[in-house]
Specification:
The protein contains ten helices and no strands. It is mainly alpha-helical. It has two domains: about 130 residues, no CATH class; about 90 residues, no CATH class. The protein is elongated.
């Protein structure tokens, strides 16, 4: 297999075929056929996904990695029924987030066990404590997940707007939606510039904008938590 063929194979290991198989798995009534769908199509994609998660997020330091791989596979199998094809979220992104969070939880549990061991090597512990801060995400996967996250966020903003009754609240939601649609229109890393732009869009004072952003931020944090838990 050439290098280009290998790259193409790696890129498509969790594509439309896997997505269709997951939907068929959910709808299939026969246990025998469900097992065949899982073993023939879904499981190989999950195995590659788990391998990539370990490599990309540097989970190599975990003990009993082979056992954890099997445990993660069982976890993904257990949440197969939760994937909703009607939501604007690809199966790859959905199960990628779930698998990543599962391994992060294992890392935290591993740290707790290590702290109970008085003979632990300090350098090893320091390396573990830095592992979550040193994540390196592959560009293609990162861009795909970010794009779907933003798309879901924009859709949720429309739903949140229905629950805001004050004119100032709606103006802020509309302004934030406009910024998300046109991210190049303002430097989102410059807080002052963002507030200036929001004032221009809404006609509100900085104090009014800040007060309404607090309400919006609470909804955003809840939305982000649900996304990371695989509930969206």
């Amino acid at each position: 297999m050439s290098e280009n063929d290998q790259k193409k194979s790696d890129k498509n290991y969790f594509g439309i075929e896997t997505e269709i198989a997951i939907i068929e798995f959910q709808k299939e009534q026969s246990q025998e056929k469900k097992e065949a769908i899982f073993n023939n199509v879904i499981k190989p994609s999950f195995q590659k996904l788990i391998e990539n998660i370990i490599f990309v997020y540097k989970f190599h330091s975990l003990d009993d990695l082979d056992i954890l791989k099997n445990d993660c596979m069982s976890h993904l199998f257990g949440v197969l029924h939760k994937f909703d094809e009607n939501r604007k979220k690809k199966a790859f992104s959905y199960f990628n987030v779930i698998a990543k969070n599962w391994f992060i939880q294992q890392t935290k549990l591993n740290k707790k066990r290590l702290r109970l061991d008085v003979s632990i090597d300090r350098d090893s512990l320091a390396e573990l404590e830095c592992s979550e801060r040193n994540f390196v995400v592959q560009p293609r996967e990162a861009e795909m997940i970010e794009a779907e996250f933003l798309e879901l966020l924009k859709n949720n903003l429309e739903e949140w707007k229905k629950k805001f009754y004050k004119d100032s609240e709606r103006k802020v939601v509309d302004a934030v939606s406009l910024i998300l649609e046109n991210p190049d229109s303002v430097s989102l890393y410059n807080k002052k510039a963002t507030y200036v732009y929001l004032r221009e869009l809404t006609g509100l004072s900085t104090k009014q904008i800040a007060a309404n952003l607090v309400k919006l931020r609470k909804k955003y944090e809840a939305f982000k938590q649900r996304y990371e838990n695989g509930d969206i």
